[in-house]
Amino acid sequence: MIYVVATLELKPDSLDALREAAMPCIEATREEPGCLFYDLNASVSNSRRAVFVERWRSRDDLENHFNTPHIEAFREASAPLVESSTVEIIHPERIETL
Known about the structure:
Strand order of the largest sheet: 2-3-1-4-5
Number of helices: 3
Oligomer: single chain
């Protein structure tokens, strides 16, 4: 099992638009094989930060997720809203940062 923490630093006043863009992706991702948990959280102290918290059965399942049409659609829709992002993949034996 692996965990993913994807932190997005947003452009000002973009949180609502990000939520709207993310909902179809979240719903479709939760149906993917190997997805155990997938949710988007907004920071209570920084309105420009949102964090995806994910749990996957395997790194292969996560890799398959990266290549789905709904993640591609989310990337395109969110690109104008996001200033930067960091993705951490937490394996039982190490942490990967993308």
